[in-house]
Amino acid sequence: MSKIIPVSYESKPCYKIVLEQDFEQLMEYVKELGYRSSQKICIVTDSNLEALHLQELKSIFDSYFEKVISFSFSAGEESKNLDTVQKLYEELIIHHFDRQDILVAFGGGVVGDLTGFTAATYLRGIDFIQIPTSLLSQVDSSIGGKTGVDFSQYKNMVGAFYQPRLVYMNLSLLQTLPKEQFISGMGEILKHGLIKSKAYFEWMKSNYEAIMSLEPEAVEEMVYQSCLIKRNVVENDPKEKGERALLNFGHTLGHAIEKLSDFSLFHGQCVGIGMAAAAYLSKELGHISENEYMEILDVFKHFGLPVSVSGLLAQDILEVSKSDKKMVAGKIKFILLEAVGCAYINPNLTDGQLMSAIESVLK
Which residues contact 222 (CB under 8 A, 6 or more apart)? Predict the structure, then answer.
């Protein structure tokens, strides 16, 4: 049974998030958008997905569209840059893609972000469809229209807000996802509970075994609930002027750790460490109790997320954090917990407070 979440943009219906266990209904939802068979499709994916699932997806689009091409790049964050975008532009130009044609992002967050940015900028904007394949991309990056690429090691420094026409999730693909990447996705999912719903956070604790065993019903419910939370936040604040910043819980320090580790840690792992630091500060400021802080760390560890990092210097993490694109007037907009299930923005933390948070997660 499909689960469908409608998403609005600036108070107008914009696209659907569709949760399925296969690709059987994909073309029905694509045809609903009014596309003609003469329009061209370019499936953008990475080297991992190309080997595993590209032919299956291509055959589905081939059944309706007259011309379907694919563009693949090396899997990994190191490909998420303007050089890859330029190669994709060239492929689209060679095949005479115009404003009526369509990009399909088939992969994780790197693929989705890069494809969305290309769609936003090629010929000043063409349509794109998100088919996220990783847990992280399904519950986070595929929803809300934030696209972008890294620039000289600065994460997501170049980008645009650009909405997809459809987000279609085949949850069965999670069965082939490496365990470390599934755990990485859990970082964003646990974040959703901590910033918006204590009940959801408690539900995840109670359903740990079913989730980690990839039981379809439990995974579908988890993805659905996380998508609802993300949808509600981005609808309320489509261009990150206020509430949407709460989704950055754990990200300011997490991005710094990700960069300083040369992306050797997964994004969700770095977010987990960043959330552990933010939870420490939330405890130090008296918002959550010592027991709640320790419970948060225990839940992270239970799901396989790290809560500390070694080999980095606190001062380096602080300095890199200050190059984050979310800085405002020289201050870090840091997200803290007012309570479990309720987050807020604190733009007034001192360097000393930030250093204490960083030191709490250094081995």
Answer: 189, 204, 207, 211
